[in-house]
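INTERNAL AUDIT FORM
Audit reference: QA-55
Scope: verify that the stored structure record matches its stored sequence.
Auditor: D.O.
Record contents follow.
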Amino acid sequence: MLIDTHCHLDARAFDADRNALVDAAHAAGVSAMLIPSVGTQNFSNVRDCCRQYPACCPAYGIHPLYLAQAGEADLVTLRAWLESESTTRWPPVALGEIGLDFYTPGFDAARQEHFFVEQLKIARDLDLPVLLHVRRSVDQVLKCLRRIGSRGGIAHAFNGSRQQAEAFIRLGFMLGFGGAMTYPGSTRIRQLAATLPIDGIVLETDAPDISPVWIPGQRNTPAELVRIALTLANLRDISYDDVLSFTAANVKALFPVPLTP
């Protein structure tokens, strides 16, 4: 089973041809997709995607780059939404996308950390794994995780050191590898993908973002996960079927409900 653990299927970039893209992903072999939100403003869109496409599972959270539209009331809304959706046919499998982003100019580290910590507390209270955004902020994310605790999750689009990768794995996290891994110049990412324990790795597209090397600068789609998985197989010198088997088992071990069609 091939599972895309990070795909923004509700994004406007897919409005014109979303049905066709989902069909293409299934035809290519992508069995399931995890759809994270970026803020309360798109909770309903994420839920609607998962209702329309049975192979999709939702995650809800407030992304660090969308805090300009967020306030304290959004944390209350998030908790209430997660609790109410937990009893539906499309229960959230994680809280996310949340984390820290110290890359974008003008970032407010204190505000980001406040929202991150409060969301970690919600995830802890509701016993949900988390989908982490860790751009230029890995050490601070790890510090918050150690302080608040969590049941694990995924460090999405991981681009840290081996020491940081091993720290996440010790805390019960998988590392998400996607389009960046396909670029020959991404030597550190490729080395990690090739040598880290396979039971700490999951696959993702981050569609429509982080396009792989064969479509640079173009819109990424979930169907590209097949060639991303082939890249991982080549880097590790194992079969494509082994990649599917290992990474699917990792996802199933992580989430409270099965990511299946």
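Auditor finding: record pair retrieved intact. Residues 230 and 240 are 6 Å apart (CA to CA).
Action required: none
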